[in-house]
Structure formats: C-alpha cells, structure tokens
Amino acid sequence: MRTLQIVVILIYVAACYWIANNARRQGSTLKDYLCPSMGPWTIALTGFATAFSTSTLVVGAGFGYQYGASVLWFAVPQAFGLAVMFLLFSAPMYDMRRKLGSLTVSEFLGARFKSDKIRGWAAIILFVFCVGNLIVIYRSLGLVVAQAMGIPYWVAVVVGGILAAFYTFYGGQLAVAQTDVLQGWLMTGGVLILFPIALSRVGGLSELYLKLGEISPQLTSSPGNFQIGILLGMVLVFSVGMLGQPQILYRTMFIRSKKDIPTIALVSFFVSLVACYIAFHCGMVGKVLIPTELATSDLAMPTLIISVLNPVLAAVLVTAMCAAAMSTADSVLIMASSAITRDIYQKFINKEASDDRVKKLSGILALVLGAIGTIWALYPPSWFLFLMAFVWAVWAATYMFPFLYGLYWRGTTTNGVFASMVLGPLTAVIWKQMGQPFHIHPLFPALLVAGLTIPIVSSFTPKLPDEFLNELFDK
Fold this sequence. Notes:
By secondary structure, the chain is an all-alpha fold.
C-alpha cells in the first residue's frame, strides 16, 4: 500500500511542479506574481480550497465523529458565508482596486483610506496570524498523513512544507490559485469516492442514524453534545466570520470581469456544501465503524480511509488530504510574504526598491516562512495553541468592517477604520483571556466593538477629500 501511496503522491508533486512552471511562464511582473486576473471557476475553487482545506476533510470529519448529526447545522452557513463574501465584496472591489492600483489586502486598505499606518497595521496583523496559521496547517498535515501512511510525523511535515513553499516561491499567486483548483477537485473527488463506499459499510443513510442513536441518543439530536449557545455561536462564526478572513477576501481582487461574480458564488456554494455534508457524514460513519475513542477526533478521516478503501483509492484519498492542507498553506505563504515585502519593505524600509526586487524577495521569504513553519510544526511552542484558538475572531474583527464600510460608505474616515482595526482584535484577545463569558465566542464582542467603532469615530473625525471619494464611488 505504501508504494502505491508514494507513486500517487509523486504524480501529484509532478502536477504541482508543472502548474508552477506554467504559471511562471505566464507572467513576469509583480502584478502577475501577486494579483493576476483569473476566470470564475479558478476563483471559485481557489476560494473553496483556501476557506475549507483541512477544516473540511480533517476537522469536519472529526466534528462528525465526536458530535454526530448536530454538526450538519454548520454545512449550509459555511457554504453560504463563502458565497455571500463573493457577492458582497467582489463588485465594488473590482472597480475600486483598479482605481487604486492595489496588489495586496493591506495595500488596498492603506490606499482606500490614504493611510500608511492602516497599511502597516493591516500587514502586521496579517503576517503574525498567517505565520501561526501556517504552523497549524503543517502540524495537521503531519498528523493525518503519518497516521494514514504509517510514516514518521516529521517526514510528512517536511515534505509537505517543502512542496507548498516551492511552488509558491516559483510561480507566485497564479501557481497558488491553479494548484488550489487541482487541490479543490482532489478534495471534492476524494470525499465523493469515499462516502458511498463508507456508507455501504453501515447499511445506508437510515441505518447510519439508527446505529448512531444506539451508540448515544445525543449523536442524532440537536444540539446534542453541544450547549445551544455554543452551537448557535459556531454556526454564526462559520458564516459571518467568513466575511473577514483576509486569505479569502484576497480572492476578490483576482476577478477578471464582474459578469463572473454570480458563477463564482454559485460554484463556491455548491462545491463547499457538498464537501461539508459528505465530510461530516464520513465522520459519523467512522463513529459507527470505529466506536472506540480515537486518540484525537482529527484521526477519524484517515482511520476511516484505511478501514474501508483498497490501497489504490486510499492512496488517492491520502493525496487529497495532502492537497487540502497545502491549499491553505500556499495562500498563507503568499499573503505573509507579500505583506512584509510589498507593504512593509517597499513602503517603509526601501521605497526605491523595484517591483522586480520585491517579487524576488517575496519568493525568497515564502521559502523562509515555509522553513520556519515546518520547524515550528515539528516543535510547536506552548503559546501557539492560545494564539490560534481565536485567529478567526481576530482576523474578522480586523478586516471585515474596514472592507465593508470602505467599499460601501463614503463617510468612513481614516481614524474610524484605524480605531476599529485596533479595538476589534484587542476585544477578541481580552474576551478570550476572560474565559469566554456566557459561552460566547470572542468573535461576537469583537465584531460588535469593531462594527460600532467605525461609524461612531467617523462621525466626529475628518472626512477624506470629496475629490478623492468622487473618483472611487460612481454615482
């Protein structure tokens, strides 16, 4: 089995190299490297792969294994949140980004509000949490692939880290997006192969629920093992929180034509919905077939793969899980490297740096960050788990409302946005440190503070010049 797995993974590695090499030939400018134009299917699938990744195949299946049918409440909000993000932000972003000439998320915010401090702060928040996110991705990849293939954990982490860093360095954002398309199809195709085979082992869908109920009635009821407040909170986190994730917002900057937006939203919604529902159900099948508690629920998917599939199909599914992890890792690498080189180095440290130099430095930094993420995933620091416990809340509180108000409200001021970008994430940190009072996720007080700060502070602080706003906002 291991030989077959290695062959399939080598084929996948070769495909990633071919895509990266092709992307390198297609564009040589900094814009091509950081912010290329793409078609609707490419954007939809790179958005899906970046947003869901291991959270669908690994964490989603783990949720299904641990909590049963109640996790199905998450599927529609997750898919809906991604589609709404594209519908809400893409059209105004298409017009405004071209007028401002921005290539990164941080650069866009800085240009929109004519503020270097906003651009620098946005880049710092993005970089710090991207690095943390990268460690989680590599660690998750290592745990899952090591379990499925029976290889040492460090081998899985190192190989995955090298591959993701290489094609990001070599081909830039276009290579990231095009490999995300491959990874998106692998993820979706993988669960479509696994689900009917796994479901047949328990006698079909109705039998699945009957057998889950026999294990525990909580597994077939809502809220089940969740407290109702936590269940509703997580539903809202997965939907509303999607609107403020910079690695997904970044995808709205690649749109080739506004006519593509409905297609992007529909494709991303249906692919995400199918993948979520199937991954959750695979976790529930795993609970029936492997009722004894696993060392961690994240092992539900690889354990199920080993249990029900023949070696060839198992190799394909292992590759799909590798792809799931790397689809987010590559996005993290390109965002973190560009935040430092484009938004910090070129803007504040060496203003005379050419675009070609920034492009080269971005690629080199992607390799360095990949190496750092790989090493830290092998020896994760103790403070890291605290950092990642509320990363979505911090990112959403930092980016959601500056984008929302900035794209739709002329009256938004620079001071209002900066205050929101500081107070929002600070609230998330304080709320988490307080132990999440009333079982409320840090996202909600953070969004409340961030969302109210902008209109309140904007009401008594200087407005941006009318000439500038007239250029940005069409009548």
